[in-house]
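Input record (one chain):
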Amino acid sequence: MEIDDLGALWDRGFALMTKRPFRFSCQAFNAPSAQAWREMARRAEGRGYSTFHIADHYLGEGPALEPTNHPVQELAAIPALATAAEATSTINVGFRVLCTGYRPAPILVKEAMTIDFLSEGRLELGLGAGWMKAEFDAMGIPFPSPGTRIKRLEEVVQLAKASIRGDMLDINGEFVHAVGYRAAPPPPRGNIPIMIGGGAPRILGLAGREADIVSINLNNSKGIFDEASFASSTADETREKIGWIRDGAGSRFDEIELEIGMIFVVIDGDGQAEAENWAKVLGIPIGGLPDWPHAVVGSIDGICETLERRREEYGISYVCIPEHRSEAFAPVVARLSGK
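The corresponding structure, as predicted from the sequence alone:
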């Protein structure tokens, strides 16, 4: 990056930040069998990925899911992640992210702490406000306003933090009630890192205030993947999102690890057809993919240079790769992890 470019970043409020070492996660949704799921987690571990991630969605094929453009997630997040943790020994396991609207908060926190305990401290606890209205509607779960969902998320985060600390719980909020007990089991490593994901100002401000890891996502406020959600994630929009995180974080900004998911991974042309298909569905100019922060396109050398440049520009050091592209991407993991 040229000096003039750094000056422009500074003028936009992007003071130079501590450079974190790279790490990479692998995210999966489905598997053809129980054994295949375990093998996916083991392969991610063997390829040097830091974390094996799963999302939190419930709808199978049908008219409820179709308008969202979201793929089917066949496996429920909590039992699937517990199985992945049992099948591995060193890789972190993480939710990217659990929807705080789908479960009573004390149950969500208890289940997460149990996975952390049984994995001997390898959990990354991702939490989100929920965004896919069609999923809420299909399961008969109320879908309140964004402000209400974010307020509930904030109360769940406070419960999670108090539980992880081992406090005697005395939380009687608008959405979360947990009074008169200590959460158990305790974290084997003394802490469980909390990730908050989102793509809009209020949730990223909350993430800046509260999270250890912030996942920079598309702005899916419409509840679907469409041209608008992808247009919300250009280079300029990503800088703006980091500004919202910084505003929320204040002096603790350098303590936060910034994470982003790659939706498209094209290495030496491999994966181009998939990228072009999705680009057509979602109205993305295919020629702009190499510069889109949620895509990596090029050779191994070129992708490494791209990620290093983005870390300089945005401070993003934690990168999530779709499981079906994790083998092709493994040389990047080997070259950049920990550097």
